[in-house]
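To the wet lab folks,

You asked to see what we're planning to order before we commit. Fair enough. Below is the target structure as tokens, and below that is the sequence we designed to fit it. If anything looks off to you, flag it before the synthesis order goes out.
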């Protein structure tokens, strides 16, 4: 696989969201959605409404608990329609929870475990004993699926050793290997290839994602 990946345009991470709230929104709203048309604009609409800078560096960081307060004050339906202007659901069923509800539950779970800032998220990822119950709780929130959403959240908050084994990554791997690939296998293959190529898993994941987006 690495012999095919070597031809991809790999670049170091140059831009990151400045707030955990934007990381949560990106992770939740990116599942089964067009990133450029729907996910990124959703994040930017919240940033504009909340009066916060989208990308690092930023003068101040909004505590994740403030995002929770905003959504709770408006209500999920109103926040979806008036602030985010995105009423997508966690799955294709009229009764499925809105992604805004999943983002709220993500934020509440993280905040309840002491994760309010990007630095808090870094500290959590470095503590396996603390991380395990948090991941268990996040996995129970509607829309978890195969776990790509959770892996992607950790990538967004700054973990370069994670990948998002979503349909884009799976499609590329299946095209290269000419066989079905499971989510756990995709994670292992990308990480192994990144080691061989001397780049981070994040860099290879992003390179594959960009290649698939342009395909």
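Sequence we intend to order:
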């Amino acid at each position: 696989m690495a012999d095919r990946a070597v031809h991809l345009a790999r670049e170091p991470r140059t831009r990151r969201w400045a707030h955990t709230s934007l990381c949560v929104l990106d992770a939740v709203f990116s599942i089964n959605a067009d990133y450029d048309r729907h996910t990124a604009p959703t994040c930017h609409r919240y940033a504009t409404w909340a009066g916060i800078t989208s990308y690092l560096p930023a003068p101040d960081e909004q505590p994740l608990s403030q995002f929770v307060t905003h959504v709770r004050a408006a209500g999920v339906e109103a926040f979806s329609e008036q602030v985010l202007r995105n009423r997508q659901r966690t799955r294709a069923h009229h009764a499925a929870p809105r992604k805004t509800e999943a983002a709220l539950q993500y934020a509440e779970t993280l905040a309840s475990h002491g994760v309010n800032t990007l630095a808090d998220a870094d500290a959590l990822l470095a503590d396996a004993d603390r991380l395990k119950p948090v991941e268990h709780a996040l996995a129970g929130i509607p829309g978890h699926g195969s776990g790509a959403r959770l892996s992607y959240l950790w990538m967004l908050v700054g973990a370069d050793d994670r990948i998002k084994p979503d349909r884009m990554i799976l499609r590329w791997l299946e095209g290269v290997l000419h066989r079905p690939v499971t989510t756990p296998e995709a994670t292992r293959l990308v990480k192994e290839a990144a080691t061989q190529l001397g780049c981070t898993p994040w860099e290879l994941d992003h390179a594959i994602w960009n290649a698939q987006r342009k395909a």
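Structural context that might help your review: The radius of gyration is 17 Å. Residues 91 and 165 are 18 Å apart (CA to CA).

Thanks,
Computational group
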